[in-house]
Amino acid sequence: MAYSNNVVALVREQSDLSASDDHSLDGRLRQCLIGRGLYQEVKQLLEDKADANCRLRYKLGPKEFDGTPLTLAVKLDKPNIVRLLMIHRANAQSVYSMKAGRTGVLWKGPAVCATVAKGNLSMMRLLVEYEANLQGRVISFNDEPNVTLLYDASYFGHAHLVRYLLQQRGNPDTPVKFQDDMSITKTALQVSASLGHDEVVRVLLSAKAQISLGTDFGPQELKDAVDGCHVEVVRLLVEGGADLFAGEEGRRGVDYLFQANNAVLTAAAAKGLRGCDEDVVACIGLKDFVRFLATPDAEEILSAVFRKCELRYWKNEKRVAWKTAYLPHGDLNVAVGPPKSHFDDKFHKEMELAAGVRSTITDKEDELEEEFFKQLLPYRFQRLEHTTQVPIEISHCVLPGLHRNPEVLWVLASGVNDRVFDEKGAHAIINLAWRETYRAHFLSFALDLLVACLFWSLAFLMNNEYEWLEDWMIWPCLIIAALAWLRNACSEILQCLGFHVYGKLRDYFLSLETLADAFRIFLTGFSLTALVIDWKACAERQELRLIFAITGFVRWLRVLNTLKGFESTGKPMLPILQAIPATVPFFFVVFCWFAGFLHMYYSFGLMSWWQSMMIMWRLGFLADFSRNEMRNVTLLSRGEEDWTWPVDLVLVAMGVSMSIIMMNILIGVLAESYNRGWEHRERLFLLERSRLVLHHFTIYTGWEKCPCACVKRRIQSEANSHHVWFANARDPSTWGEIQSQYDADVMNVHEKVTELRREIREMHEKMLEKQDHSEELNSGPDPVISRRLGNLESCVQGMQAKMDLVVSKLGDSRAS
Q1: Model confidence at 21: pLDDT above 70
Q2: C-beta atoms surrounding 371 within 10 Å
Q3: Please, what is the end-to-end C-alpha distance for the chain in angstroms?
Q4: Which of 37, 209, 497, 816 has the fewest CB atoms within 10 Å, counting from its CB?
Q5: Rounded to an integer, what distance in angstroms lies between the CA atom of residue 776 and that of residue 733?
Q6: What is the pLDDT of residue 635?
Q7: Residues 486, 528: contact at Cβ < 8 Å?
Q8: CB count in 10 Å sphere of residue 25
Q9: 67 within 8 A of 38, measured Cβ to Cβ
Q10: Which 8-state DSSP code applies to residue 680?
Q11: How far apart are CA 553 and CA 550, in angstroms?
Q12: Residue-wise pLDDT tens digits, 116-167
């Protein structure tokens, strides 16, 4: 109502004032509509034979219009006056015009077009009741039929109008000349995508609107959405089948998307690929996949390339699909096997065999598949005790060899998006790679543990604490430790070579883990060299003993690091190790606090700087102190000045603030960080394991590229036809069981529909009653409102019937 009043005021202010001199019936009708537009006044003028189709000019905001009373009433949203004009033979196809677009084209359209700008569906329905035309190019530019109502509704972003016009058989693929540049044609989908009307795009795609076949940087709709940063529109277009991968490399839709360098748009496209057809995703290249995977929040690209499927086979001349399996290794069985098309072909061969068309299937095919099924569906033909099969979903990867591709493993190990480890596809890739890495990593752990124990043995021999220790034991320990050190050094060199092959050498050298490994190898080599050259000097000289001691400490940290790759030790350990770095900001605060108290106490002149710091350390962090020591009783005995009360003040203040308050806050910081790490322990563990498998494959890549390698070490051969498969337990909610809460929700909807039907019936009856007793209302919206209410009631009845059918089917499924 407020909008209508404002429009009336504008019309009254800005309309053509020359009409005020016209005292004819048509002139008075123009004045009445431009003025207050009262129903009774308009009715009286029409009964006095005023022309309902006369021409008049009016202005709304900056736009000037040339139209009829009907077009103005539609613009002002006056349904009663519209009905009155139609009763008095107003033309439902009466036209109004204006100047539009950047070039100022002459825009002409019927009255029904006036409902589109504001999305007035009720007014459009009213005009349709009076046979307004919705089909075809009803709007013309410079007297040339051009625009459809569906295009116009899409331009203004009114999804409910678009849905209604589609129901009226509007064509969404009609090309329309764009008003700002008549040399450009656009469809309804293109204009809504360029303006970011995501709801309109969703409606048009659900109506099978065609996405253009762009040959240069992808479809035009996608380019417009990327340029406008319309995130949801990008997702909908990709999900609707916009081809990102057609065309030559460098000029495809996905290249245009990556050139925008917008992580949000890339993530939206990844989400759209998850919902599109498998044929579209099958065209994705490895480089494109890695680019998606390296984008934050684009983890759904894994769900896009891992597609659910059925593995079918023939049993007793019946088609059967694997729906259940044992999951002996947790919630996921993983395997490497042929693409899905191989099993589809085999199924058809078995069908031909059952029909007698084919005589046999080769034993070689069965042998190749048996190893695959042992991993994916273990014990599939056996009945195991103490365990049961569960409903499963089988997924396969459309890209081959992801679990051994260093580019993929590098992105996973970088941790750029830790949510990627929530995806089952990431679990499958890492688990398969770990299956090949396990033996090498276990050997590394055994050697690291052996070296650490050898350094313990060397420490015993150096201290000569026990009589049974003899000098001849030194050399075996040194030789074994030196061989293990040589192996580690060679592994690091091969790792460098492998990362150089893949162009990641700079990133490898800049990582803290590489620097730590280099320091450990150098320190171990220096200590072993010193022990070999002069054992006696290492035992006697303090600096060499200190280096030996630090080396032993570093070796045990190496053992701790290798333990992170095993599931039994890694998952509990990683939250603990994750909690330690979280204390760094806390210790910045504590350092300043500690430095202040240290400065205060040292200024008393009672102790040296180092002694003062150790006393403050014991007091602040360990709550361990001696009042006499802090007062330095030795100085007091010599007659020096007594600092008892300042020392007591420092003791109390530091004991309360640091020993009690700060240390308890430290416990809280550690607990909070540990809780976060424990909640995400699966992510932390998979991230650590992905780093281990990355190092494994780069070492062997370096070995293969090493010019001095006379015997090539071999990783399990991987043909391009080998794809990652996994079988995981289905969500229990999909097992067919209907939850009681869901039943309650369904019954709640049923009750609300019944209540709505009752209210509509009561409203209908009241309207009929008022119509019989009120002459004024009888002259207003009489049969039309009753008819529309009757239609609404019938629609609600149909909805209730469908709801009853749904509830009955749900009840039957639950009973079964």
Answers
A1: no
A2: 12
A3: 55
A4: 816
A5: 59
A6: 57
A7: no
A8: 15
A9: no
A10: T
A11: 5
A12: 988 888 889 888 888 888 888 888 888 888 889 999 999 999 999 999 999 9
